[in-house]
C-alpha cells in the first residue's frame, strides 16, 4: 500500500458516533471562524469608517452571500460525488470528479469576477444601496470580485476534502485565512508606513490576500503530502470536463443551492414583517437573530458531516451504517443544539444584553421573543440532519420542496393571518410552526420516500445477456 493510500481516511468503518463527532467539530469550527471574521471586520468598519461605510459593506455582503450561495450546491454535489466514489473504492471516478470540478469552478469564478467587476455599481443600485454608501460600497465590492476566483476554488477544495473524509485540513486552512484576514484588515483599511490607506477597499483587499495565500498553501500542502486526490501526469487529462459528472454537479447542485436561497429569502420576508412594528421590535429581532446564528451552527455542521459520512457508506452500499449515522446525527443535534438553547434560556437577559441596552424596551421584547421561538431550532436541526442523509444518495429535490412549503407556504401565511389578532407574537410563533412542519415532512420522507433509490450519476446501462450477444453476432 502506498503512503498516500495508508493515510486515506475512511468513513465506512469504525465507531459511528465518535467518528461523526470528530468530523463535525472542525466543520462547526470553520463556521464559527467565518462568523467571527465577519463580526471583527464589521467592527473595524463601523467604529472607524462610520455608519455609511458599514451600510455599504452590509449591502455589498448581501450580493457576495448570494453569489457564494449560488455555488454552495455545486460544492455540496462534489462532496457527495467524491464520497460515493471513495465508498465504492473507485479512485478513478473520484479523480474525474475533482478534475471536472476544478475546470468548472475556475471557468465560473472567472466569468463571475469579470461580469461583477464591470457591473458593480449597477448591482448595488438595484439593491437600493443608499447614495451616501455608494462611494464605500463600489470599491469594496469590486475588490471582492477580484478575489472571487480564489474564494470559489478554495471553497470547492474544502468541500472536496470533506467528501474524502477529511474535515481537519479545511479547518486548519480556514483558521489561517481568517486570522490573516483579521490581521490585514486594519493595515490595508487605515494604512501604515508605505502601505496606503484604502478604506473599505482595503477590507476587500485583505480578503483577496488571505484567500489567495490560504489557497496556495492548501494546494502546496496537498501536493507535498501526495494527497490521494491530487492530479498528476496523465491524470491532468481529467481536467477536461466529463459531461455526466458536469451534469450531476449542476443539476444536482442547483436544488441544494436553492435551499439556501429559500432560507435567506424567507428570512428577508420575515424581517419585512418585523419592520412594520417599529424600531424597538426590529432591534429586538436583530439581537435575537445574532444568537440564533450560533444556535444553528451545530445542526448545520452535523448536517454537513452526516452528508459526507453517508455518501461514502452509500457508495459502499452499507445501508445499515447509513441509518445508524442518521440516528447518531439526530442524537448529537439534540445534545449540542439543546445545550446551547438551554444556556440561552438560563442567561436569556445577559446574552441579549450583549447587543441591547438594559434600559430600553427592546431588551424585554427580545427576551419574550426568545422564549417563544428559540427552542424550535432543535426541530430544524433534525430536518438538517435528515436532509443531509437523503441528499447523500442524490435525492435533492424533496428537501427543497419541504423547505419551500414550510418557509413560504406555512410560516408567512400563519403570521399574516394572526397578526391582526395577536400582533408581532404571530411572527414569533410562526417559527416553531414552520420548524415543526419541516421536521415532520422530513421524517415522513425519510421513512417512506424513495431516497435510497436515488442516484447522483445515471446508472450504467446493463450489459446485454450472453445469448443476445451471440444472436447478434450470428446475424
UniProtKB/TrEMBL annotation:
<protein>
    <submittedName>
        <fullName>Putative efflux protein, MATE family</fullName>
    </submittedName>
</protein>
<dbReference type="GO" id="GO:0042910">
    <property type="term" value="F:xenobiotic transmembrane transporter activity"/>
</dbReference>
<keyword id="KW-0813">Transport</keyword>
<dbReference type="InterPro" id="IPR052031">
    <property type="entry name" value="Membrane_Transporter-Flippase"/>
</dbReference>
<keyword id="KW-1003">Cell membrane</keyword>
<dbReference type="Pfam" id="PF01554">
    <property type="entry name" value="MatE"/>
</dbReference>
<feature type="transmembrane region" description="Helical">
    <location>
        <begin position="330"/>
        <end position="348"/>
    </location>
</feature>
<keyword id="KW-0472">Membrane</keyword>
<feature type="transmembrane region" description="Helical">
    <location>
        <begin position="171"/>
        <end position="192"/>
    </location>
</feature>
<feature type="transmembrane region" description="Helical">
    <location>
        <begin position="97"/>
        <end position="118"/>
    </location>
</feature>
<feature type="transmembrane region" description="Helical">
    <location>
        <begin position="20"/>
        <end position="40"/>
    </location>
</feature>
<dbReference type="InterPro" id="IPR048279">
    <property type="entry name" value="MdtK-like"/>
</dbReference>
<feature type="transmembrane region" description="Helical">
    <location>
        <begin position="368"/>
        <end position="389"/>
    </location>
</feature>
<dbReference type="GO" id="GO:0015297">
    <property type="term" value="F:antiporter activity"/>
</dbReference>
<keyword id="KW-1133">Transmembrane helix</keyword>
<feature type="transmembrane region" description="Helical">
    <location>
        <begin position="60"/>
        <end position="85"/>
    </location>
</feature>
<feature type="transmembrane region" description="Helical">
    <location>
        <begin position="426"/>
        <end position="446"/>
    </location>
</feature>
<feature type="transmembrane region" description="Helical">
    <location>
        <begin position="291"/>
        <end position="310"/>
    </location>
</feature>
<feature type="transmembrane region" description="Helical">
    <location>
        <begin position="138"/>
        <end position="159"/>
    </location>
</feature>
<feature type="transmembrane region" description="Helical">
    <location>
        <begin position="396"/>
        <end position="414"/>
    </location>
</feature>
<dbReference type="GO" id="GO:0005886">
    <property type="term" value="C:plasma membrane"/>
</dbReference>
<feature type="transmembrane region" description="Helical">
    <location>
        <begin position="244"/>
        <end position="271"/>
    </location>
</feature>
<feature type="transmembrane region" description="Helical">
    <location>
        <begin position="204"/>
        <end position="223"/>
    </location>
</feature>
<keyword id="KW-0812">Transmembrane</keyword>
<dbReference type="InterPro" id="IPR002528">
    <property type="entry name" value="MATE_fam"/>
</dbReference>
Amino acid at each position: 500500500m502506498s503512503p498516500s493510500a495508508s493515510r486515506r481516511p475512511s468513513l465506512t468503518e469504525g465507531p459511528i458516533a465518535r467518528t461523526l463527532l470528530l468530523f463535525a467539530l472542525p466543520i462547526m469550527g470553520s463556521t464559527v471562524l467565518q462568523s467571527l471574521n465577519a463580526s471583527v471586520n464589521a467592527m473595524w468598519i463601523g467604529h472607524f469608517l462610520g455608519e455609511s461605510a458599514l451600510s455599504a459593506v452590509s449591502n455589498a455582503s448581501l450580493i457576495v452571500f448570494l453569489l457564494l450561495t449560488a455555488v454552495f450546491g455545486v460544492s455540496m454535489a462534489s462532496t457527495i460525488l467524491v464520497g460515493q466514489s471513495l465508498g465504492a473504492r473507485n479512485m478513478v471516478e473520484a479523480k474525474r470528479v475533482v478534475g471536472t470540478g476544478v475546470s468548472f469552478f475556475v471557468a465560473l469564478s472567472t466569468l463571475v469576477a469579470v461580469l461583477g467587476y464591470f457591473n458593480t455599481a449597477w448591482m448595488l443600485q438595484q439593491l437600493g444601496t443608499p447614495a451616501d454608501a455608494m462611494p464605500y460600497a463600489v470599491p469594496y465590492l469590486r475588490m471582492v470580485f477580484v478575489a472571487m476566483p480564489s474564494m470559489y476554488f478554495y471553497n470547492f477544495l474544502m468541500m472536496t476534502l470533506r467528501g474524502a473524509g477529511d474535515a481537519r485540513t479545511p479547518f486548519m486552512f480556514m483558521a489561517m485565512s481568517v486570522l490573516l484576514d483579521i490581521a490585514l484588515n486594519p493595515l490595508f483599511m487605515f494604512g501604515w508606513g508605505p502601505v496606503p490607506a484604502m478604506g473599505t477597499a482595503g477590507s476587500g483587499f485583505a480578503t483577496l490576500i488571505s484567500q489567495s495565500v490560504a489557497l496556495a498553501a492548501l494546494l502546496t500542502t496537498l501536493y507535498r503530502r501526495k494527497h490521494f486526490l491530487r492530479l498528476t501526469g496523465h491524470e491532468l487529462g481529467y481536467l477536461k470536463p466529463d459531461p455526466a459528472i458536469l451534469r450531476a454537479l449542476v443539476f444536482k447542485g442547483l436544488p441544494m443551492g436553492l435551499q439556501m436561497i429559500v432560507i435567506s429569502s424567507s428570512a428577508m420576508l420575515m424581517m419585512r414583517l418585523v419592520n412594520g412594528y417599529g424600531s424597538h421590535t426590529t432591534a429586538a429581532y436583530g439581537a435575537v437573530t445574532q444568537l440564533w446564528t450560533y444556535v444553528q451552527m451545530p445542526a448545520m455542521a452535523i448536517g454537513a458531516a452526516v452528508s459526507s459520512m453517508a455518501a461514502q457508506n452509500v457508495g459502499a452500499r452499507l445501508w445499515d451504517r447509513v441509518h445508524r449515522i442518521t440516528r447518531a446525527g439526530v442524537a448529537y443535534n439534540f445534545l449540542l443544539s439543546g445545550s446551547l438553547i438551554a444556556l440561552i434560556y438560563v442567561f436569556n437577559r445577559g446574552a441579549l444584553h450583549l447587543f441591547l441596552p438594559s434600559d430600553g424596551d427592546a431588551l424585554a421584547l427580545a427576551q419574550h421573543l426568545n422564549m417563544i421561538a428559540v427552542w424550535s431550532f432543535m426541530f430544524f436541526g433534525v430536518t438538517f440532519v435528515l436532509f443531509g442523509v437523503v441528499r447523500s444518495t442524490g435525492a435533492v429535490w424533496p428537501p427543497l420542496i419541504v423547505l419551500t412549503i414550510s418557509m413560504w407556504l406555512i410560516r408567512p401565511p400563519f403570521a399574516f393571518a394572526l397578526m391582526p389578532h395577536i400582533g408581532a407574537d404571530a411572527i414569533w410563533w410562526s417559527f416553531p410552526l414552520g420548524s415543526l412542519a419541516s421536521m415532520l415532512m422530513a421524517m415522513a420522507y425519510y421513512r417512506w420516500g424513495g431516497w435510497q433509490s436515488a442516484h447522483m450519476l445515471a446508472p450504467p446501462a446493463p450489459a446485454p445477456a450472453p445469448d443476445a450477444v451471440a444472436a447478434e453476432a450470428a446475424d
